[in-house]
Amino acid sequence: MRNYFRIVSAIALVVGSSPAGAQQATAPKFDRSGVPDTSIFAPLVFPTPSASRAASGAPGAHYWQNRADYDLKATLDTGAKSVSGEMVFRYTNNSPDTLSYIWMQLEQNAFRKNSLSSEVYSQGSRWNPGNFEGGDKLTRVEQIVAGAGGARKRVPLTIREGETMMRLPLAEPLAPGKVATLEMAWNFVVPEHGADRMGRDKALFEIAQWYPRAAVYDDLRGWNNDPYIGQGEFYLDYGDYNVSVTVPAGYIVAGTGLLENPKDVLTAAQVARLDEALKTDKVIHVITADELKSGAARPTKSGMLTWKFRAKNVRDAVWAASPDYQWDATNYKGIYAFGYYRPSAADLWVESADMAKMSIQEYSERWFQYPWPQISVVEGPVSGMEYPMLAMEDHSQSKQGLYNVITHEVGHNWFPMIVGSNERVYMWQDEGFNTFINTFSEARRFPKDGDQMQRAMGERGEVEQAMRTDQDGPVMTPPDRIAEPLLGISAYVKPSVGLQLLRQEILGPEAFDETFRTYVAKWAFKHPAPADFFRTMEDASGHRLDWFWREWFIENPHFDQAIDGVRLVSKGDTNNVLVAYGNRARGVLPIRARFTMSDGSTQDFNYPAEVWSTNTLRYIRVYSFVGKKVAKIELDPDHRLVDIDRTNNVWTAP
Ligand SMILES: [Zn+2]
User: Fold this and answer.
1) How many domains does the chain have?
2) Do 56 and 88 have their domain in common?
3) Ion ligand 1: residue ranges with CB closer than 5 A
4) Which of 155, 284, 474, 518 sits most deeply, having the most CB atoms within 10 A of its CB?
5) What is the DSSP track for 326-350?
């Protein structure tokens, strides 16, 4: 989801008037009398390692996850503004447990009157479904089982619906290693405003959360059947998808996967342009504005056409359709980068295919190779939402604004489409990590607007301001429990700053990058939990980081370093300086001190955060300078850290 929350939270920060929380620093405590160790440095207890999840943070020797393969057929009725669907769904049980039912998601039910979503989120919210009366109408749910003599038998299933979830009792228990085959048919009216994750605008349809999707059964929580309310996104298993989308012949369709039948739905000239787009660095106009105007954009004008897409090893499939889509194409190392937009958006969107291309290039080169054959960015009413191989964005106000949203939504292909974490519970594991990798991509496209470090420091300032005004919260809070204006800080910016601090101030860029790549590679196409991330980062970097996980992700302490006192003792030519560094909040960070000497020269002294481990309140150092005196000492002079009170950071010689 897009990161414009930063704007929202900035407003909230100005409006919010509560004073900064006075947090008491905690004295070091040792477990000498049965008193628990409450220090920020106390060992953090992670869940016990299992056959599924190793103590190193890697998937265990017997790691398992279930698999969901879909053959989907959709028909768009542009008059009734509805979608009717049919699917053959194969669910593979790789768990060690026999399953007697499957939980599936019916997210269109969020658009029923009096849905939980409409009650939780206010009318003005981006997620309130309004007064629209929608919802999934299931017309057929059957399991295909082996009958007498090996014949296939259809068994109708009686489902139980609750909010956006349904429970399917299986006709026969699904043993470990076995596959259940189900067939379903359903339809729904497309909401105009689909909680900003799908919807329509005049003739344009952006279709997502559109078929019954299997919930994840995992080794940590069993069935993850938390309802879809609004802010919490999706947790899905991987599988192969065949998607057929039948639309009026005048429509152009973008979708997850590779188009299987271009010759059926495009003109011969357009098919040739698609081929050309793989052989050039330029952007090729596959469907042009002139063709849309003259009526030459489509091979036939009447009846319906079926667009067929095929996608392998993805966790979802979506599509968008419009009779007005211009279609641009280019490639990065043989991977298509597509842009789809209406002529009204062409002023900025003419760069969209190239922006998508630069995004997959950036993330592939730095973190993990993009694994799919194409990336599409589609223009429409949804202001920023990610799906495998397809990102939805609105028109935007500027090239920078458009790139920031495109590279954010495309970046989600790494988190959570490749690294498949549980978004509904741990939003930071995709939004925060994605916000972090976006800073490199934004700096690559617009270097004059600031390099990666400057962008990272801008985010640091946002977190600092949020802490000063008590507008921050623990990163670990599930998204549907965070007040909407604070979501940007808690789930996007703060976890991103956590990675920036780890990279630039704690581990160093080289060690961090290698370690973070290890995390992505180990958990690609799998389901890492927070502890798997924490353990991997420690295992691969060689740093114990209990204190950092606790202060940055689990608890919500503030940070306030100070210069508590300075003593000067001179003997002849030698000037001795004793500095008492103070820590006046619970959180600890490295010390960055700059000494300015009487001759105007400067000297920096840096200490790791662990110097606070035996005494979290005070750290004392003695320095000797021959032939020069200290005129000024300043903590964190370059604002590389987070500090809610900088007035106590400076000492000047009397
Ligand atoms: Zn996002």
Assistant:
1) 4
2) no
3) 1, 431
4) 284
5) EEEEEEETTEEEEEEE-GGGHHHHT
Q: Chunk the chain into consecutive blocks of 10 residues (it has 654) and report each block's average pLDDT, rounded to whole numbers.
A: 51 34 46 76 95 98 98 98 98 98 97 93 87 94 92 95 95 97 98 96 98 98 96 97 98 98 98 97 97 96 96 98 98 98 98 98 98 98 97 97 98 98 98 98 97 95 96 95 91 98 97 98 98 97 97 97 97 96 98 97 98 97 96 97 97 96
Examine the fold and report which residue of 529, 554, 579 is the final residue of a domain before the chain moves on.
Answer: 554
Residues 399 and 445 grouped into a single domain: no
> What does the pLDDT read at residue 215?
98
Q: What is the whole-number distance in angstroms between the Cα of residue 585 and the centre of ligand 1?
A: 31
Distance (angstroms) between ligand 1 centre and the Cα of 634 equals: 37
Residue 379 resides in a domain: yes
Domain boundary among 372, 391, 424: 424
Distance from residue 435's CA to the centre of ligand 1 (Å): 8
Structural domain contains residue 390: yes
3 Cα: distance to centroid of ligand 1 (angstroms): 6
Query: Can you tell me the distance from the alpha carbon of 86 to that of 545, in angstroms, rounded to the nearest whole number?
Result: 49
Whichever domain contains 134, its CATH number is: 2.60.40
CA 462 / ligand 1 centre spacing (Å)? 18
Residue 386: which domain range?
Answer: 266-297+323-424
Specify which residues 105 forms β-bridges with.
Answer: 165, 213
CB-side neighbour CA atoms (13 Å) of 564: 14
What pLDDT sits at residue 122? 87
Report how far ligand 1's centroid is from the alpha carbon of 484 (Å): 14
With a threshold of 0.85, does the pTM exceed it? Answer: yes
Cα 495 to middle of ligand 1, angstroms: 13
> How many whole angstroms from 2 Cα to the centroid of ligand 1?
5
Chain-wide mean pLDDT for the chain? 94
Taking only the tens place, the pLDDT of each residue in 388-415 is 999 999 999 999 999 999 999 999 999 9
> What was the pLDDT predicted at 485?
85
Q: Which residues of 83-116 are buried (b: 16+ CB within 10 A; e: fewer)?
A: bbbbbebbbbbebeeebebbbbbbbbbbbbeebb
The CA distance from 461 to 5, in Å, is: 15
